[in-house]
Amino acid sequence: MSETDNRLHRLFERYIANTCTREELEELLAAVKQWPANDALRLAMEQHWRNSRDTAGIPDAEAKLEHLLTSTRPSTDQQEQENLTPVIPVRRAYRWRYAAAAVVAVGLGAMGYFYLQRSPTPSAIVQHNILKQDVPPGGNKAMLTLADGSTVALDSASGHVMQQGNTSIHLQNGRLQYDVNGASDAASLNTLTTPRGGQYQLVLPDGSKVWLNAASRLKYPTAFIGKERVVELEGQGYFEIAKKAGQPFKVRVHNLEVLALGTSFDIMAYDDERTMNATLLDGAVKVSVNKETTLLKPGQQAAVIRGADAIAVNKVNTEQVIAWKNGYFSFVDADIHTIMRQLSRWYDVEVSYADGMPQGLFSGEIGKGLTLAQALETLEQARVHFKIEHDRHIVILPE
């Protein structure tokens, strides 16, 4: 076997094992374009077919190829998926769990692909209304509420906002930054609120960085004095905490408290979500709810069901958890409700469901730079049908 043949064998094996890098996946897709003329790739797949019972009964080589490549989950890492072009047509697979569709939609510097895992059902053709006026993606916008109750609308502008005591407040391209000049013996509370369809970054007086997701709120002091640094969160935020010996950092969310010393973590606690989740990326945090306490290691997530005291700790894909911060939505085995809750916050739309809504679990990514129409088109590739009752009310239809 030639070196080229060996290379294609290894690429195909890495694809099946879901360990391809972006460059390897592109190389394999280029080889697939030459199907069925590429003998080395055909030999590699024939060897896999002989070792797999999943492809038994599939009638021809082309169907086997499409089955293998559409029923194997690609990597969901943003860097590996960005700018890939689909070259593989999608057909119905012949096993009970299958990838119904996969598509890469490039627009506004973003991407998206989706596939569905569920029992095969007859394909439905549904007519839906076209958006009369497309809805743009969310962007950098927030409202700053000062201690006296006055408010300042924030966007992506830059410049000096105001002075509060020894603290200067600046805007820098969608980021609000607090700079403390000298010691402070007093502090007032400020609140940063992002609307539906908004996001914003914040640099706290101690240098800690916070990214606020859509429909979120953070209350914090203009200077951290005393024995601890405390902020209050609603919604979702990603934190990179500046180390400060002798002054631990706490985030309070309802009855949940996260205690950190220089570390990076995400907290998701929307009122319409069943659980509150704290996910650790780096360092160490202590998560407490009422009398229950647990320590997290990097890559772990603490989940607390609302109204309960128990803390469940699970290993998670942290890149998926903070995908919202990095410019895209990422879902793995998510139901349609989970997906649409996130989209509704980002595009500021209402979502309702007709009887017999899509069942099963969906996996894929949608770029946050896509318009609403582009995002919905991506979902349609996984046979999610919808209608638009008016420009900001989406009805999810049965199959």
From TrEMBL:
Chain segments annotated as transmembrane: 98-116
MF (Gene Ontology): sigma factor antagonist activity
Keyword Transit peptide: no
InterPro entries: FecR (IPR006860), FecR_C (IPR032508), Ferrdict_sens_TM (IPR012373)
Superkingdom in the source lineage: Bacteria
Name listed for the protein in its UniProt record: FecR family protein
Domain (Protein FecR C-terminal) ranges: 328-395
Keywords: Membrane, Transmembrane, Transmembrane helix
Taxonomic lineage: Bacteria, Pseudomonadati, Bacteroidota, Chitinophagia, Chitinophagales
FecR protein domain boundaries: 191-286
Pfam family, one: FecR
This protein's record includes keyword Protein transport: no
